[in-house]
Every structure is written in structure tokens, then in C-alpha cells.
């Protein structure tokens, strides 16, 4: 069967399987085996490609970073870090209009440097920040949008699960990706803060006036503000160690997980049942991601072996548009896919197709990985998929006074932050040094 026919059939079959609800890993493996069989005419060759890809994928040292950073985040949450971060930021910003909303953004940014998972931040801060914002008479849509929107920092600020997935698929240094994400992460955090300040200015009825400090807060000001210092120190050690070359990302994950465990012990939060549940959760999350990576590795090798990448490269390069136009086209495709697929699935599907083309056009794949991830994350707050939005909605279950909140309200409040995400992505596209300055200085 010709290369063009195999390329067309494999992509159509893959999209059809996903559309009909077949799990992504199953879809990728089935499509890969069938494509190789159609291209070579030998079923044994197809099975050999599958087995060798699976064995080669799981043996890679860098994949150890996934369970270690996942465990680090879960242990940090067990220690009460999320509540401490929020209390500290909200107290520091209490005299600023919109301070509690800004505190939610900042706490999300710092918590993102521990968890690496967007939905974890959305679930945690729905419980912590939403009651406080509603008590202060924040507009309900803005309060909900602040939580679901700022939670996307979990996938942008390192250590990010998406960066690990992208690095493994694009054969790019995960350490460089982590360091490259620092500046865009800070820029995104500032953009979200500007969104809240802008809403406070143009819609003053949406965000209340500042609240005075209570006597308890005055007496314990520095105690509350400095309470998160162990978590901040752990972030500096693990990520700073990567930047300075002391640790590989995998070693940094091990140091971070052990440090988070020590914080749990130090704060007397250790409980056998909860600790066991944390280990099971880390294993479950890591296992599902690793299975996807194995199937994606098979898919990537199949595309290369059957010449699918070459067909797509010739097709794209045949367009009479400049290279930056191709970048913007890819970003638009990623945003559209974000409306119907989850972030990891999009990255696994598109990285093997887009990265070879970007490399041929002379673009840095570290830079492209970051702008890809930012674009993909728009899907976390856009309908109909909107994983962050549905996470916030599900986290409302059992909370007093939260009856009647609809998914549409959360989507509406998130649109302010969607605009900020798109603007930041465009800034990173047209000013690539924002992404590349730190990794180039390593």
C-alpha cells in the first residue's frame, strides 16, 4: 500500500476510534499495528514494532521523573501546603482590591511548582478559595473563573507533566523545558493578576472593597506569611538543582518527593491510611501516563517508518505561507483540538507530526514545546471539554451554599483568563527569547 494511502487511512482511523470513545492508548496501538501491516504486508513486522517500541519506551531513565514528581505533589498537598500558600498570599494582599483573587493566582502558581497537574490545583483551590471569595461578595462568575483559569498554571510552571510527555516524544531535554517554562510561567501569572485588577477597575461591582485585618491576623502576621517556607525551599532546591546542573530532572524528582515526605513528618501530618492512599494515587496516575507514552512511542515510530511524517511535511511546506504562518496555523489547530480532547492526548497525537516540520523550518523545539503547551491549555477552560471547569463543578459537591452553580457560569468567568492565555502565547511566539533566555544560560 502506498505511503499516502497509509497516512490518510491511519489518521482517519485514529480520529474515528477516538470519536467513538475508544481509549487513546488502545487507539494508538491498534492504528500503529494496522498501519505497519498495510505498509509492509507482514503481521509479524507490525507486532515486532509494537513490542520493541513498548520495551524501549519503558526502559528510558527519564520516565522515572513522572512517578517521583507526582508523588512529590501529592505528599506536599498531604502536608497542608496548599492551604498555607493561600493563607500567606491572601494576608499579604488583603489591603489590595481583588487581593483574595490575586492570592488565588499566586498560590496556584507556587502550588503548580509542586504538583505539575492542572486539575489538582482546580480541585484544591475550589475548596480553599471559593468560600472566601463568596464571603467577601465577589461576583460568582469571576470567583469561579479565577480558580479554573489560574489552575492552568499547573501545566505551565515546572515540574509539568505535559513537559515530561513532550520532552519524551520530541526528544528534547526535560531539564531545559523546565527551565524554559519559568519566564512564561511568571508572565502568565502577571497576566492573570492584570486580569483581576482590570475587572476590579471596569466592573467595580464584581470585586469588593478591601477588608481590614482582624486582630488575630495582626498578631500573627509574620507567622502566617512565613508558614509556607518549607515548601518554597523545596521548590528552590529541586528546580534550582536542575538549573544549576546539580540534579537531573529524575534526581530532582527524587529529592523533591523525599523532601515533601519530610515536611509531612515535620508537620505531624503522617497517617498510615492517607499515606497509603497517596502512594496508590501516585501509582495510578503514573501508570496511566506511562501506558499512554508507550502507545505514543509506537505511534511515533509507525509514522516515521511508513513515511507519514514526510507526506505531511511535503504537504505543509507546499503551502505558500511564511514559516511563522505555519506556527500560527499549528497553534490554532491545537486550540481547536483542546475543545474536544484532553491535553495529554493532544500532545501525544500532534508532537510526532508537528515537531519534525518545526525542526525543518529551523525553529527551536524547546521554544515550540512551550508555545504548544500554552495553546493546548486553552482547552482546559473552553467548552465543551473544559476539564478545569468540570473539575471545579465536581469539587463543589458537598460544599455548603454552592447549590445552583452551573457549568455555564464557570465557563463565562473563565473567558477573561482565556484572553490572557492567548495574549501570552502570542507574546512567546513573537518574542522567543522570553522562553529561550534561561535555557540558553544553563
* Beta-strand residue fraction: under 5%
Number of DSSP helical runs: 24
CA-atom Rg in angstroms: 22 Å
Give the averaged pLDDT, no decimals. 83
Order of helices and strands: HHHHHHHHHHHHHHHHHHHHHHHH
**End-to-end Cα distance:** 47 Å
Helix content: over 70%
How would you explain this protein's 3D organization?
The chain is mainly alpha-helical and 442 residues long. It has one domain (3-440). Helix content is 77%, strand content 0%. The chain starts with a helix and ends with a helix. The model has no long low-confidence stretch (mean pLDDT 83).
Outline the secondary-structure elements.
Layout: H1 3-19, H2 24-40, H3 43-58, H4 65-78, H5 81-92, H6 99-115, H7 118-135, H8 140-150, H9 153-156, H10 161-170, H11 174-180, H12 182-202, H13 215-219, H14 221-225, H15 229-243, H16 249-266, H17 272-305, H18 308-317, H19 323-338, H20 343-360, H21 365-377, H22 387-395, H23 407-430, H24 433-440
Helix pairs in contact: 1-2, 1-18, 2-3, 2-17, 3-17, 4-16, 4-17, 5-6, 6-7, 6-8, 6-12, 7-8, 7-22, 8-22, 8-23, 10-20, 10-21, 11-24, 12-23, 15-16, 17-20, 18-20, 19-20, 19-21, 20-21, 21-23, 22-23
Keyword list:
24 helices, mainly alpha, 442 residues, TRAP transporter large permease
Quick structural summary:
The protein has 442 residues and is an all-alpha fold. Helix content is 77%, strand content 0%. It is found in: Cell inner membrane.
Amino acid at each position: 500500500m502506498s505511503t499516502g494511502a497509509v497516512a490518510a487511512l491511519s489518521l482517519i482511523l485514529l480520529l474515528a476510534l477516538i470519536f467513538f470513545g475508544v481509549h487513546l492508548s488502545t487507539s494508538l496501538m491498534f492504528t500503529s499495528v494496522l498501519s505497519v501491516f498495510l505498509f509492509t504486508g507482514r503481521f509479524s513486522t507490525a507486532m515486532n514494532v509494537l513490542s520493541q517500541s513498548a520495551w524501549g519506551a519503558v526502559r528510558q531513565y527519564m520516565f522515572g521523573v513522572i512517578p517521583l514528581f507526582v508523588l512529590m505533589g501529592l505528599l506536599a498537598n498531604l502536608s497542608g501546603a496548599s492551604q498555607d500558600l493561600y493563607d500567606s498570599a491572601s494576608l499579604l494582599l488583603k489591603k489590595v482590591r481583588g487581593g483574595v483573587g490575586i492570592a488565588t493566582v499566586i498560590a496556584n502558581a507556587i502550588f503548580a511548582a509542586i504538583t505539575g497537574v492542572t486539575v489538582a490545583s482546580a480541585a484544591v483551590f475550589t475548596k480553599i478559595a471559593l468560600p472566601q471569595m463568596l464571603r467577601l461578595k465577589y461576583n460568582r462568575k469571576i470567583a469561579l473563573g479565577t480558580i479554573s483559569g489560574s489552575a492552568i498554571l499547573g501545566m505551565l510552571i515546572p515540574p509539568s507533566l505535559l513537559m515530561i510527555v513532550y520532552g519524551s516524544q520530541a526528544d528534547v531535554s526535560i531539564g531545559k523545558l523546565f527551565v524554559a517554562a519559568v519566564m512564561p510561567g511568571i508572565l502568565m501569572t502577571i497576566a492573570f493578576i492584570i486580569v483581576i485588577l482590570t475587572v476590579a477597575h471596569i466592573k467595580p461591582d464584581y470585586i469588593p472593597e478591601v477588608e481590614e485585618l482582624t486582630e488575630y491576623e495582626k498578631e500573627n502576621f509574620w507567622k502566617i506569611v512565613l508558614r509556607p517556607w518549607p515548601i518554597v525551599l523545596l521548590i528552590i532546591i529541586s528546580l534550582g538543582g536542575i538549573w544549576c546542573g546539580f540534579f537531573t530532572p529524575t534526581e530532582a524528582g527524587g529529592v523533591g518527593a523525599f523532601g515533601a515526605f519530610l515536611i509531612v513528618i515535620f508537620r505531624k501530618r503522617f497517617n498510615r491510611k492517607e499515606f497509603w492512599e497517596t502512594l496508590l494515587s501516585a501509582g495510578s496516575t503514573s501508570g496511566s501516563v506511562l501506558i499512554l507514552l508507550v502507545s505514543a512511542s509506537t505511534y511515533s515510530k509507525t509514522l516515521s517508518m511508513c513515511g507519514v511524517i514526510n507526506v505531511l511535511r511535503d504537504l505543509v511546506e507546499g503551502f505558500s505561507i511564511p514559516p511563522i504562518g505555519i506556527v500560527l496555523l499549528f497553534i490554532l489547530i491545537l486550540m481547536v483540538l483542546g475543545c474536544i480532547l484532553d491535553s495529554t492526548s493532544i500532545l501525544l497525537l500532534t508532537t510526532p507530526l508537528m515537531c519534525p516540520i518545526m525542526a525543518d523550518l529551523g525553529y527551536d523545539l524547546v521554544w515550540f514545546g512551550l508555545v504548544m503547551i500554552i495553546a493546548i491549555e486553552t482547552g482546559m477552560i473552553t467548552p465543551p471539554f473544559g476539564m478545569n471547569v468540570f473539575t471545579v463543578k465536581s469539587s463543589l459537591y458537598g460544599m455548603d451554599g454552592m447549590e445552583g452553580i452551573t457549568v455555564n457560569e464557570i465557563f463565562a468567568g473563565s473567558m477573561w483568563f482565556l484572553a490572557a492565555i492567548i495574549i501570552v502565547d502570542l507574546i512567546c511566539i513573537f518574542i522567543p527569547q522570553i522562553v529561550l533566555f534561561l535555557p540558553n544560560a544553563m
